[in-house]
Amino acid sequence: MTTPRETGSSGGTARGGGPRTLAEELRARPDGALAGLLRARPDLLTPVPGDLTQLATRAGTRASVVRALERLDRFVLQTAEALAVAPDPCPYGTLAGLMTGDAPEDPRIAEALPRAVAVLREQALVWGTEDRLRLVRTARELLAPSAAHPSPTGLGPTVAEATAGMSPGRVQQIIAAAGLPGTHDPVSAVAALTALFEDRVRMARLLEQAPAEATSVLGRLRWGPPYGTVTADPAPHLRWLLDRGLLLPATPGSVVLPREVALHLRAGRAHRAPEPAAPELAPATPHSARTVDAAAAGQAFTALSTVEELLAAWESDGPLVLRAGGLSVRDLKRTAALLDATEATAAFWTELAYAAGLLASDGEVDERYAPTPAYDDWLHLPAEQRWGRLVTAWLAATRSAGLAGGRDAKSRPLNALGPDLDRSPAPEVRHRVLALLATLPPGTSVTPETLLARLHWERPPRTAAEPGGEDLRTRLARWALVEAELLGVTNRGALSAPGRALLGPEGAEPAFPMSDAEAGACAVRAAVALAPLLPEPLDHILLQADLTAVAPGPLKRPLAQMLSVLADVESKGGATVYRFTPGSVRRALDAGQTAADLKAFLTGHSRTPVPQPLAYLIDDVARRHGHLRVGAASSYLRCDDDAVLAEILVDRRSAPLRLRRLAPTVLAAQAAPDELLEGLRAMGYAPAAESAEGDVVVMRADARRTPPRTAPAPVPEGPPVPDETLLGAAVRAIRAGDMASTAERKPVAAPAPAGGGLPRTTSAETLATMQAAVMTGSAVWIGYVNAEGAASQRVIAPVRVEGGFVTGYDHTADEVRTYPLHRITGVAELADEHA
Questions:
Q1: Cis ω on the peptide bond leading into residue 513 (within 30° of 0)?
Q2: Is the pTM for the entire model greater than 0.90?
Q3: What is the number of other CB atoms lying within 10 angstroms of the CB of residue 638?
């Protein structure tokens, strides 16, 4: 809440030449300073304030002040907290004394304090001259001590606040016990007690008389919390403190240490440990930059392979979408087993593919997840460009995979790919973590705790910790470190060369937020940095007699795709081991290959001969493949060998398929074709599907795609930061509106309402004044009500009046506009000096 004193628009200045209100101070600022305020607090810009009084009022609203306080670093926030417990207004010297205390001035604080005050002033949280600094009322209410909301300083209420409900007789007893002469009223008594507690010499003399136990109690309350409990019959040492006002009653059964007493015990300091400088990123651990880059590139290649493996599996059999959205716990476990990873890591890969626009729900009635058409385009890009797409999507995404598996504030489960994983601060935290690592020499790392200490100084936690015991930004930072390692942005805790390129040009300060063009340029630079570090894909494998194949490194895409169809991955690592099974060979035959094709493929890509057991396996599966054919009746089964059909009919395992003979070579089934195929395969047969024309249907794994989908849009944290063009236009509009609301007007026949408002004149007077202004070329002040009924006041220079309309240059909008005369409430000429 703000007061008229802070936001009023009346002219004049306070004694000493300073502004009387925040609006007056804003009015005296140059345009660049106003633009800086709107840049630092973009919420003030929506909608654009009509004038500087509105801007000052909006800058003092609770929501805006809370947002501004949350973006201050620790020392600037400590300065604001000190101002909240200081007298209002507060001279700069008093503020410096609260930050340094009675000890010799700390040079670090002396150097940092002007910057802190300048930041608070720039963000319109502090206004006034150096000898009359004022914290805006809302910030003071948020930061000042209270029983419900203790101050971070650990200080309690002042003597005047703590004795507000005390009887005058009790106040007189306290000052008498403290050795002060009696007064005629409680106000002067409280002032005398306050003066005693603020006098270092007299206060020290009083405390010398205190019992040792009383001194111990004061020591425990000194740094806060300042509240304690007492019984109905306090101990003698507590009674000694209560009698002299060193402890004052707060509520029945509790007492509080007055602020003035605490400050004396602290030697005048508001904070136990002021932190004028950010903690250093030390100790640092050096690594070989070449080793870090090489290992990070290997991890980047693994990241690409993992995403491809995930989407290749889901393009033929994607998991169902939960009714509430997201992936079920069971499907996440299956995905983790598929990727040979933990559930948390599997959730990250699925969220990454979703954020990059490669994965989405298909929108069908039986809704499932599947790759998008963008996945096919992504697959055809070079490896370094595919990696660039992934990491830029990760860096900008507000979705936080680390939340998957937890619960929200209402104890509802949070599922991977679900609707409730967006956290607006995530992109900024990721970007800042990488930017801090970029300040270290190449190949150098620090511990996560060191990095978190720096982040906590730059943005002190002010919100309650989420489930897990840490505040949201801390958890986001920990997840960012883990995810950066998985992607190859970092390795061994150090930023890789592609990771540095991802933040911007070398030597430039990393910018946040980035525009789409800047993000695209950074992705290109990162891809260029990664390209020479990636291992060269191989075009060969090593076949072994135990029905396995070894890929001694990453394979070229056609070879890898075909091998993934023909064999199952048995183990991963520096080398990948594939195993050939009847099911995997049948899968290749289902994809349209023949036995001869498979043998030719293996012969052409193996550095070792095709083992005889593998050749026999391919021939045996191919001999039986397609012997049985499934079609749709509900479905049917046909075979040239009626003995095989007879064998199937008498097999008890075929009972769920409800088969019956239609002809010697044809059986009808009540089951759907895909169920019939699976049932026969479970019985040990190798059927093939056929089309309505009787041709074998080739089942390709890449046949299933979602309709075109766009990547999920990040959920911004508050209004976006305005660009320079918008800032310039907004400042001009605010200046023009302020001129319209504060310019002196000549008296009119029907004066404006008392207290300010729209001018009121008759239609004839309005028309005559407008015509006179056109002839003289002067500007006038008008009141205008638009079609929606919104009233505003404007300064215009009329150039034409005809047909019931006036056309003129609108100083408020900085453009030529036309207004209907019937919507103008009144008009007044500007005073000569403002005309």
A1: yes
A2: no
A3: 17
